[in-house]
Design brief:
The protein has a single domain, classed as Sodium/glucose cotransporter (Up-down Bundle). Helix content is 71%, strand content 2%. It has 25 helices and 2 strands.
Length: 605
């Protein structure tokens, strides 16, 4: 880093803080303004912000590591989370279902589904607590990646017995906190939009640079070993760029990546997990954009724009991997390909790209913190500690809860060093422990608040026990089965041994949300015209989802192959992409403006 590079970074940081503080007055109007931007922000800004929030440094470092070490097939491993395949489900139906609730947080949604009595309060409290725990885990994950990356460039020394990576992460997080705490979601969204522009400029530069590189037919890649070291392994261009997934890989058993040797089984589990997760919805910063959307149509449009913008991440990933391979023996740790590539860039360009990657890190971090703080303020403090809290008290809690959550997450980085380790646990263990009750709540009317809360608690505890007792080298699908299995059993037992939710609450939930599933008892209470319209919408959504999932995967593969320049693969992917896009137009896009109007009979009131 030279003085020019530092100057570029400082200018960027100054602009971020200026934008954040310029939104402070609007955010102070109330917690609805602070956490949802008064539900008045345009769909394109919400979609742009979503893309920026998904494109973090930690995730980029992991995905680049997989593509660098395994080749194009590394994309399939990140179906577990990095491909963000849940967006296909949010685009077609899950986004609008959540928007219709009119709530601020996932925890508040529980009163909409389970009522305001004890079962609804229990489900809401448990969801808030677990969501805060998950937020802290995500902050730890972001801090590890951000610290690893920035620690390579800023020249920060170890201090007070703490490593340079810790202090680099602290600087990044502190700067993000300034505008996040000051301006809430307004600051998050509009700084994300600006940061998205910077990110795209960085992507364009790296992609153009990679397009000028022709790798040899034979080359070597480095992989992490179980003994803590790294080793080099040979591969070739045809194998490395081949997108056709194999049932088995031939990774050295001494490598930590050997857990992916049963590739077919792993990918099936990732797809299974993503389907359940997508059909059950999501939480935290992703779902917050849908609560903030104005209409069903805008929920669909922001999803489409989000996915389109996110697809540009994949040529960036491919370009970084290509440049990383061209560096040869300079690469030892695959997770350090990203900083190694940035390290060879010329003066000025280096500062610009570091600013762009800091933008990616800060946009993900600020969204996560803002959503996590909402659970404390709205679902714990206001509901259980101070029901008559004033506007001033709520805003104060918003600020302090953000700070405390961040401090805890940062502290945990001292104990977890590997990015893939924490990401694997978040996506395939703690995520699996929550996934079953999250799914069932939409489709089975009999699930009550107690069953949901018991299932969530059991799943979260089982995931924590797994993390503390099982080695990180064990295949991730075992963690998934363990946590999801315990959660499923606990959910069913908790539901069956407690009374059903009140029919009036369930009828209102169905009338507003109109999900498919086991809701015949409540759908039959609606007029025939409303039932027919709901059935048509549900059928379209189911068909469109079967198109949207492969459409998103193929879109990302297509974008990545633009950098690989494997023209036969690109042609096939292009044909499939066009065919699926036409199908989505006729089964989904042209119906975006058509919102079902439910008429209720008097006996359902």
């Amino acid at each position: 880093m030279t003085g020019i590079d530092y100057s570029i970074v400082f200018v960027y940081l100054g602009v971020m803080i200026f934008i954040g503080f310029s939104m402070q007055k609007r955010a102070k109007a109330g917690i609805d303004s602070y956490f949802l931007g008064d539900r008045s922000m345009p769909w394109w800004a919400l979609g742009s912000s979503g893309m920026s929030s998904n494109l973090d440094i930690s995730g980029t470092m992991i995905i680049v590591a997989f593509v660098y070490a395994i080749g194009a097939k590394g994309l399939y491993i990140e179906i577990r989370g990095g491909v963000t395949l849940i967006m296909a489900f949010l685009m077609i139906f899950m986004g609008k279902w959540n928007r219709r609730s009119g709530v601020m947080t996932l925890a508040e949604w529980m009163k909409f589904r389970f009522g305001t009595d004890n079962e609804g309060k229990t489900a809401r409290l448990i969801t808030a607590i677990i969501s805060i725990i998950l937020t802290i885990a995500m902050i730890t994950y972001f801090a590890i990646g951000g610290g690893k990356f920035l620690g390579s460039f800023l020249g920060i020394p170890s201090f007070l017995g703490l490593p340079s990576e810790f202090w680099a992460a602290t600087i990044l997080i502190t700067l993000s906190m300034i505008y996040t705490v000051a301006a809430g979601l307004y600051g998050v969204i509009w700084t994300d939009v600006f940061q998205g522009i910077l990110i795209f400029m960085a992507i364009a530069y790296i992609v153009v640079k990679a397009l000028g590189i022709d790798l040899p037919e034979e080359f070597a890649v480095s992989m992490p070993m179980k003994n803590g070291g790294f080793a080099s392994f040979p591969t070739n261009w045809n194998e490395w760029t081949n997108i056709i997934p194999k049932w088995k890989l031939n990774i050295d058993p001494n490598s930590t990546y050997s857990m992916y040797n049963l590739f077919g089984i792993a990918i099936m589990f990732y797809l299974f997990k993503t389907t359940i997760e997508g059909s059950g919805g999501t939480g935290n910063y992703m779902i917050q954009r849908y609560y903030a959307a104005k209409t069903d149509k805008e929920a669909g449009l922001l999803s489409l724009f989000w996915i389109f913008l996110l697809s540009f991440r994949w040529p960036f990933i491919a370009a970084l991997a290509v440049i990383g391979i061209s560096l040869g023996t300079q690469i030892t740790d695959p997770e350090m390909v990203l900083p190694a590539v940035v390290g060879i860039l010329p003066i000025g360009i280096k500062g610009f790209l570091i600013a762009g990657l800091m933008a990616a890190a800060m946009s993900t971090f600020d969204s996560t913190v803002n959503a996590g703080a909402a659970y404390w303020v709205k679902d714990i403090y206001q509901q259980h500690l101070n029901k008559n809290a004033t506007h001033k008290q709520l805003m104060k809690q918003s600020h302090w809860s953000s700070i405390v959550i961040v401090i805890i997450g940062l502290f945990l980085t001292l104990f977890i060093k590997n990015i893939n380790e924490i990401w694997g646990w978040i996506t395939m263990s703690i995520g699996a422990g929550l996934i079953i009750p999250q799914l069932i709540r939409w489709y089975w009317w009999r699930l009550n608040g107690y069953g949901y809360a018991i299932g969530m608690t059991a799943g979260a505890i089982s995931a924590i026990i797994w993390k503390l007792t099982v080695p990180a080298t064990v295949e991730e699908y075992y963690a998934f089965m363990f946590a999801a299995g315990i959660s499923l059993i606990a959910t069913i037992i908790g539901t069956k041994f407690t009374k059903p939710t009140d029919d009036k609450v369930l009828q209102n939930f169905y009338n507003v949300t109109r999900p498919f599933g086991f809701w015949k008892k409540f759908k039959n209470k609606l007029p025939e015209k409303s039932r027919n319209e709901i059935d048509k919408e549900n059928r379209r959504d189911i068909i469109a989802t079967f198109m949207a999932v492969p459409w998103q995967i193929i879109l990302f593969l297509f974008m990545m192959n633009l950098v690989f320049k494997v023209w036969n693969q690109l042609l096939v992917l292009g044909i499939l992409l066009v065919a699926l896009s036409i199908g989505l137009y006729f089964k989904w896009f042209r119906y975006l403006s058509t919102e079902v109007k439910v008429e209720t009979d008097k006996d359902t009131d």
